[in-house]
Amino acid sequence: MRDPKEILKKIRRLELRTRRLVNAGFAGQYHSVFKGRGMNFEEVREYAAGDEIRSIDWNVTARMNTPYVKKFTEERELTVMLVVDVSASGTFGSVELSKRELAAEVASILAFSAINNNDKVGLLLFSDDVELFIPPKKGRLHTLRLIREMLYFEPKGRGTNMAGALDYLNRVINRRAVLFLISDFITPDFSKALTVSSRRHDVVAMPVSDPGESGFPDVGIITLEDAETGQQIDINTGSKSVRRGLADLEEVRRKSLARLFRSRRVDIVPLSTTEDYLLPLRAFFEQRERRLAA
């Protein structure tokens, strides 16, 4: 059983780290690239030089015998859903961070960015089934609960079913939301569910990888075990063709995923346990800003 004090310390360290990053600029970038649901009517006021002619309220203008315009403000509040893979393959990590720990850290940045912009944040943890759903809410304490669950939740399942997770969200989230899919996407076909989700929501895919899963050193014959199924296989890493074949298989899978996301107009933010995740996050925000400005 984990020590509650150690859990609190780790959550607090992660909160401080991610809050510093958010305050250093991510919250502002987040605000600029994610739009609200529309425009809210605020008031009617007298026409002033430079006002858009199309904003004139003709009913009020006729009644007051002087031009009046409608004033609108952007409705900023968003619903953000963090959809995080907690399958057994997420425990793998050939360096300091496992894929699941990396996912939790990136998701924390997104959660605090959302909270800083007065948005609601929810969480869905999934393996081969939906393990946990926390409805979107606001507030620091709510965000800390999400972080705790992402770090320490113990799933019942070991496999990955992205289609099931998306189908569940398509049923329970009725209003348009921003969905961050954080997973290694080692999963059966989920293209149909993704098609539905991408039409209803703003979907951002964040594939998490570790180079140790496809790049093997020459250490002779080793036994590999699938963390999700328990199946084992012996491979000869001393063979260049075997090592190249494994790397090629992973490259084919990665390119297939990229084609799927592009075909559904889903943005991709690639994450690796061996690289600084700030670089792809910033690149994503900057690319999206340019696209919105075009």
Entry keywords:
11 strands, 294 residues, 2 domains, alpha/beta, elongated, 44% helix, 7-stranded mixed β-sheet, Rossmann fold, two-stranded antiparallel ribbon
Q: Overview of this structure, please?
A:
- With 294 residues, this protein is of the alpha/beta class.
- It folds into two domains: 4-33 and 77-293, von Willebrand factor, type A domain (Rossmann fold, 3-Layer(aba) Sandwich), CATH 3.40.50; 38-75, no CATH class.
- Helix content is 44%, strand content 23%.
- The protein has eight helices and eleven strands.
- The protein has helices at 4-33, 58-64, 99-116, 140-152, 162-172, 191-200, 240-263, 278-293, and strands at residues 38-46, 68-75, 79-85, 120-126, 130-137, 178-183, 202-209, 221-225, 232-236, 267-268, 271-272.
- Helix 6 links the parallel strand 6 and strand 7 (202-209).
- The longest helix is centred in the N-terminal third of the chain and has 30 residues, at 4-33.
Structural class of the helix and strand makeup?
alpha/beta
CATH superfamily of the largest domain: von Willebrand factor, type A domain
Based on Cα principal axes, name the global outline: elongated
What value does the average pLDDT take?
83
Strand content: 15-25%
- Total helical segments: 8
**Regarding CATH, which class of the largest domain?**
Alpha Beta
pLDDT < 50 runs, ≥5 residues? none
- Spatial separation of the terminal alpha carbons: 53 Å
| Helix fraction by DSSP (H/I, runs of at least 4) | 40-55%
CATH topology-level fold name of the largest domain: Rossmann fold
